[in-house]
## 1
Amino acid sequence: MTSFTRRGFLAASTAASTALLLPTRSRAASDVLSLTATTRTIEVQGRAATVMGLVNGQGGLGLTLDPGQRFRVDLTNALDVETIIHWHGQIPPNAQDGAPNTNPMLMPGEARPYDYATRPGTFWMHAHVPAHEVGLLAAPLIVHSAEDLAADRQEVVMFLHDFSFKAPEEVLAEIMSGIPHEQAAASQNNMQGMGDMQGTDGMGASEMDINDFDFDAYLANDRTLDNPEVVQVERGGRVLLRAVNAAAMTSFWIDLGQISGRLVAVDGEPCQPYTSTRFGFAPGQRLDIEIDMPADGTALPVFALREGARERTGIVLAPPGAAVSRIAGLAESEHPAFSRDMTQETALRAMTPLAARPADRRHMVMLDGAMVPYIWTINGQTVNFHPEVTQVFHRELTHL
């Protein structure tokens, strides 16, 4: 999913098969853009699948905005059920945030206007309804900065999903029933003892806590590795990979093989460059990674590795004439768990850190939960009914 490039020949390089994935850019900052929550059909492992999507006025997925451009969007619900869309990482007025506990649901056939000042970076839009999240109702939201437009690099968006041929409601029912994996029935007796375990101490010994569900496929820009998107790039050129983990339940490693990349922003916030060949992120997170393509013109597979398992997906960055080899969707061995490796997290430093000063208020928050029953709490209560959380977010604070 190529969203932006400065070089003319690269602008024409995107194949027609990926046109529906390109975020749209408005012709003028004063234009009101359109988004529609609807269903669409994709092909997964040779089978047609009906999923959801946020389609822009040109028929593609998502939006790309210019520096300083406001988010002026009319959102229409073309689904036959109510939904609500959240602008993840942006800071709109509360009435436009898209959270179901503070905003009214968008009813079938309803259109709703949005208008707020944007912040630059890699963001995304997604439903705040669990079944719709599993059903792929999401899309990228890229807001360029002036520095982005001046940089001599090509931008490529990699949008990740976990996908099941089962209905989203069926997936959620299995998870909530305490069967996080399709094959878990054989080991159900071993799982029953977990119901009495409290906190992460009881859960830490079980590998099933890494992944809540075994999905049928893992998608990068709506494709699996048996038919990956091949993005044409310049030999020896620089690429900015904007990776978005839009999966409902899966953490990934972005793996560059033998090539080192530079992590320059996390969740839309610039950071001091962190160099590695592998970068981890959880659902909802975004990574901006600068990659210098090999000078010899070879193609570069960019993998997204499912943590704690063998599955992988990805795209291929390929200069003109580069050979693209067939890639298996399963690695030879399991990938490590990102959630148990803090190397990257402890190394990250903000480009513009917060000023050091005393907190105005301190608030202790105890996070807990268990796989059986599948319930997660803050200070012993589910988040929708937690009065202390409401007090924190409704109180005027300068430093928490």
Note: Residues 1-29, 180-206 have pLDDT under 50 and may be disordered.
## 2
Amino acid sequence: MNRESNEQPKGVRNQKASSTFEELEVYQVAREFRMAMYRVAKHLPESEKFGLASQIRRAAVSLTNNIAEGHGRYHYLEQIKFMLQSRGSLEELIDDLNICVDENYLPEVEIAPLKENGWRVRQLIDGYVRYLRSRKAANAVGECSPPYGNVDADHLTSLDLTNYE
């Protein structure tokens, strides 16, 4: 949230109250884009069935899977990491659309609106990453860990591990 107001950053509408990834606006819009990219893959020539079409399907799945997986992580840095992976898959898909135009698989007039939708998803991902960074202190989960340093080898050999064998 912005410190000066109660408004969420651009592209983060309804993100804060989301208890499931399916409620996230960024996921919903990315899901629509994924489905559109699957339709593109279905319209590619048979010669691209195991090439570009397969690549599009994998990147499209990665787009939404990483949003879902990141949402399931507790620490904000992990959530951000998965959102950035999702963004990478998205940019790969936009380049795949460029390939479709360059190779005359689909007309540019059909590809242009898809690319616009892709850049909209990018804005939402970036907005959600900004939101995650802004709330990092509030929801960061940490675990206690022993101090890093020399390990007392005698202490380790005297541990009773019979219940763990």
Note: Residues 76-102 form the longest helix (27 residues).
## 3
Amino acid sequence: MESTEPEATEPESGDPEATEAVSADPKSAEPESAEAVKTPRRRVSFFRVVVALVLLAGVSFATVSFVNRAVDQSAKGNPTAWFAPYVDATLVPTFPFENPVEGGSKDVVLGFIVADRDGGCAPTWGTYVDLDGAATSFDLDRRITRLRAAGGNAIVSFGGLSNSELALRCKSPADLAEAYREVINRYELATVDFDIEGEALADTAANQRRGEALKLLQDEATKANRELAVWLTLPVAPQGLTADGLAAVEATLAAGVDLAGVNVMTMDYGAGRPESMSMAAANEEALQSTFTQLDGAYERAGNKLQPADLWGKIGATPMVGTQDTIPDQFTISDAQALISFAKVNGLGRLSLWSANRDGPCGSQMDELIVSNTCSGVEQEPLEFSRILNNLTGRAIGKNEQVTTTTERPVLVDDALTSPYPIWQDSRIYVEGQKIVWHGNVYVAKWWTKENRPDERVENLWDSPWRYLGPVMPNDRPAPKPDLPNGTYPAWNKASVYAKGKRVLFQGMAYQAKWYTQGDTPSPDRPWETPWQPVSVDLAASKSDLGASLPDWSGAIAYEAGSQIRYQGVAYEATRWNQADAPGSKNLTAGLPTWLPLATGDASGDATSDATSDAAGGVAGNASTTVPMS
């Protein structure tokens, strides 16, 4: 039988004592048993033990430190992440966003800017009022000014579910950029939000126009040493963005826009959320899916992002309480889960829809009805905002201009320039009435008399007055019901009025915001009617109205909506025409080619034959309609 001596084993560590022991005794190479072959005996030095213990202690310390940092980071979240609830700016009663104490947040997202209802490329607030109309109807400019004075900031959102986002109606990137620019400059915005849903989301050409327009505006901001942060707000399901939503992101990136982030609407999942999946789980699944989609989108755009940077470009906006898809309901516990997820993963933004709804409903409210002014679930007032408003960052604020600080003089209210009547202690004021006092505008919260608007009170809710903001430099006197007959034509229920047409009703002047017939002018709720109250300089009403318009020419072809001046009267075209002089008897379906915008002429007469004929022609055929331009 062949011998099977075991192979000599080298010491693993090169220990000198072990090496000497092996070579000193030849017999030690011959094991006494099979067990000795399998488990050779070694000796370990004291020095090696000490080194190993030191290394182990170092690794343990590093591990504990890393874990502590990770836990601390998850508790704090992304240091630049911010919270701002959406506010429906045109909803009545108006939400007091201008006061961070009452509104629950320093920063707000005001919605929504859309195209006008005539289908034009003009920015409006929800089609109800243009930017000037919002300043008078909702005191929007002064309320934003007050918010910023209190340390807050306003972001404006374009689009929304209803009406038309401007990219659908503006036919070129340049025109679209001009419409966006008007809003950005008006409110001095440094952050803008685009809520893209419905028709706008599926319109490839509109998405491309929007991207090109935003790139143009961001380039302008960079040259002017300003910032313009752009957020896209898109619908989402637990499975992620829709195909159209992802395409909108890619189109924006392809245009070269530096996206601040994509804010997903974690709401209204409907059938997309299995019955076994909780709302909190659906929200987290939607955000994880969005992360994966955006990771690919940025990589395809040639800008691969690190995970932490990508999470910082993702936001979430739940609809608090009862949702449009009845099985879906976002509760207080869901809010707590969302803020925890946001901090652990480093989301860049949280919002909610909407601050107007962040409160409990009354007992008389049907639980199946989704309200615009309450959540439909058990909660304290503004409780959702308090929970989600636990991020440490702030959105990029106002694009400030350098100003010098001067001591503010004592303000003396002037009735000739105040936008509302000056407060008087002898008068009775009812809910909703606005007044001016010491350079500020207030609105009555309930019946009041002899309560000075700026009187000190222990609690804000003790005062019958709500402070809206300061009197603005561009404010005009409040419309007064004392204009003489003949200043403008008297409003007639049977008459058709084009956009821009002015009338007189109960001593007040009104201007049509869009085509209208049979809608009674009202000074109290102008956002609900097509009529906007206007202040009138009587001298201007007789000579200056329409002075800036071009004179009519028979050689020019005019589109519907064109405005001109003819024989001292301003007119708007109801349809395409050429060589059809205003005031002529040419009618189509009983409607004149030109409708007068004002009645004053250069000679100072209150009316003119052309105006009378045109107005009479319209009034005589109440069933006709004006084609939309």
Note: The longest strand covers residues 107-115.
## 4
Amino acid sequence: MKRFFIFLTVTFLFWITDLFAVESRIGVTFETYESRYSHYTKENWFFKTSNCAINNESIRINLNDKHQTDSFGVRRGTALRNSKNFFPFSNCFTGFVESRNGSPFVSGQIDQKFFRASFGHRFRPLENFYFLRDNNFYTALPGIDQPIHKAGFLGFKWKNWSIGTYYSEQEAKHKPGIYFISPWKFFEFAYSPEMKKHYASVNFHSDRFGFTGPKIVSRIQTFGQKKEIDGTFYSSVSSEKLEFKLTGYRGKSEDLFALDPDRNELKGKAQLARLGIVSNSYFSLEWIRAWNRPLEFDLKRSNFFPNNILQLLESEKEFRKDLDPSSKRWEIIAGKAPIFYDLFWGGILLSLRNYSNETIGRGIYYGLVRKNFTIEAGQEWRMNGDCITEGKWSFRLNEFWNLEGAFLFQKEDNKTDSLFEARTARDETSFIFTDRSSSFRLRLLSPYIAFTVSHSRRKENKNDGIWINLQIQFPF
């Protein structure tokens, strides 16, 4: 409680110093995890104030509205003229005061026509999710920058191009890093010579370039050192009747597999590729493949073994790698087709899945797709005796309010891991592989509140784990 009052005092002093603020926000994040064997809580209080441009979401709506009769160029010109009302100062400042688990942090950012400078634990020019992130905290609230480690940036701007340098307490402490940003943030790149680590992003939206026809969205975010590159890939081509979707992931195995900790698949590097084709008449085809590679100990960097033993161990490691280049592979080919279909009542769907261990799964599902909500639930029976019950839903009131969830129940003696939909970004979902007997996720997204609760039960020891994250902000 004492730390909270200190935070309020600093926030008040920070607030009264900015008498010309155009926008301010105050908020808090609470997070907790509870199970039989572990428990933790986190809290993050924050206050943001700025006399910079208000992030007017209506501008983006006008640009992307499919029902607009004007051309994209006309709509873009109108939006830009309207946006001038939200740029009262050519030079502007944004400040951020926060407390992460009782530790106070102050961040600031100065924006000018030809340069940009920032310091602290919040502001970064790149939108790459992995760039200097603080793995213990994150935000799902619009208008709030992602928490990062202590860093400072100085960049120069020219006609929506930007290039600059940065300091990072963890990655660029002795040698400054460099970054580059293209217009519309179509391409972003940062590199740390000290760590020899790079970050790269591609963010393409067809409507930004005035393309007609199917809507195309593609996002790539990567980071890594030398050939060890991790990240995510998302690409979607959609029309009124059909959608093609391709997603990919490479990173830690524990982010892709929710398995028993005693299983080796939990440790190492994992990759996922997913290709899906979905029509509004409930026909769908999907191909999913996942790989897992165990972490390898770098023998050459070890001083524990003599050289002759090192050579023997290296040859043994290469021999094992040739025998089994990957610890395990998951592959699923799936399809769904309606046996009954009605625009108002929905449809009854038959499902067929071919798993990598030569197991066939047959299921029956109910699905309903409307403009603002989607529901799907059903059961699958597999030839090896496995059985699962699963479902998902999404209620989207508008572009900013969305309530979504998913559940999965499976027999405790199931032999094949099942798929469960998890959230990867604000507008994207992906699968994880799990052997848990039950999994549940519920999430509410809005401009003012983001609430997530997830629950799972391990099949061996009946250990229940529940994770809750609540984020609230009040703009004024």
Note: The first strand starts at residue 23 and ends at 35.
